[in-house]
Amino acid sequence: MLARISSGAVLGIDAYAVDVEVDITYGMQVFHIVGLPEGAVREARRRIPAAMENAGYEFPDHRITLNLAPADIRKDGTAFDLPMTVGILAAQREIPTERGGFDLEDYLVVGELGLNGEVRGIDGALPLAVSARDRGLDGIILPEANAREAAVVSDIEVLPVNHLTEVTSLIRGEHTIEPVAADADDSEALGGEYPVDFDEVAGQESVKRALEVAAAGGHNVLLVGPPGSGKSMLAKRIPTILPEMTFEESLEATKIYSVTGELPADQGLLGRRPFRSPHHTISDVGVVGGGSGVPRPGEVSLAHNGVLFLDELPEFRRNVLEVLRQPLEEGEVTISRSLTTLTYPANVMLVAAMNPCRCGYFGSDQKECQCSLHDVQQYRNKISGPLMDRIDIHVEVPAVPYRKLKEKERGEPSSVVRSRVQRARDRQARRFEGAERHSNSEMQPSDLRTHCEVDEAGHDLLERVIDKLGMSARAYDRILKVARTIADLDGADSVRAGDISEAVQYRSLDRDLEIAPHSDRALGA
Asked: Which of 301, 246, 297 is nearest to 274 (CA)?
């Protein structure tokens, strides 16, 4: 007696087809699972008999061979419990594989089983639903807990179940299950309101302007300022001024959260740009992903299409910061392990924050700094040059004076700033149409010559900046990229001297540290 059930498994953020083949023959009772099963799959030999008997079905007293094809890829997780159980029941002829208009082979089946026959939620329901659609199947049978995220995929039936008996009744034709439709709230969530807003930040107009420029060009940014100046508050509001998520961006981000099990139960689709803020004690595996067995996404992938915020940047371990270099450069992270090599998307806007020195008050006119010049330089040197090369904008965040805190007048709301950012991004989309890059931050040296036409006054200013302030060639490239973004915000076709001047102000850490440690001047001024 042989039965075959269509199922699937997740590898990376995508799913692949798995056929659950069950053969029952007469002989001594043995339950073999083959096809490179990992620990959680092998343990199903204990879960399935208990679930079947507690649901009112007799577990066969014969030899059972269960194959998970293709047999050359390791299988892990509990999502095979339900298709394996359905396959055993079909091989026993307890349920038909075909009836009327219902063909079980046209449905992908996934789900974890409790010992009482309850069908429990799984990770990766969204990519599994995408796989069912791409394979031309009619639908997917899965736990009700995962129905909302799977329903995001159109053109297939999403049939939610809570218990093994519901599955068998459905297949026998004893009752029907109403397919779950995509929730209108999920579609409306795209571009939804955020719980925070830019107008909640008192003062800091110059910093807000720098963050608007960063958002408009997709530039990485470093915030430098004393404790309590509002660096974290500003960083948390950056997603509110980024362009609204497209459906494709939302779908890709949701798949990452789905496979990691971090998608909220009441959400089928991520509508807001992710904001991830890992603690500085995180490991390199936690940041870029990995782990034993099949590598899992890290924080840089969970922040895909959003913001990765690293507070207290010099406190992160050196190896953690170094592994960020490749994802920031390529927009993806490749993880190689003995079992497999996976590539996860990691197109993030890096926002970092740090104090100007270890005590936090270098250059402050409100509190005396206790650090020597050597201590300040040593503190800065914790951040490597290659990582700093990937940060286009350095902006000082001074302490907010009391008069600004007491003002009742609020600044611009995020929606107004976002509209300007969107117009600038639209200009860049037209500029790079047909190219692999989408924003000014991704421009290569050849693009700078093509798209960053500078007027004569701008060239004169750049010459004085490079020669007198001793900035590097890399800093020159970044000044041009940021200046191009500033011009885009103004709707200008060429880069002007004023754009260059403002862009130079966002490179304060490139200047030589020749300031007395207790000077009243700001860091890098």
From this structure: 301
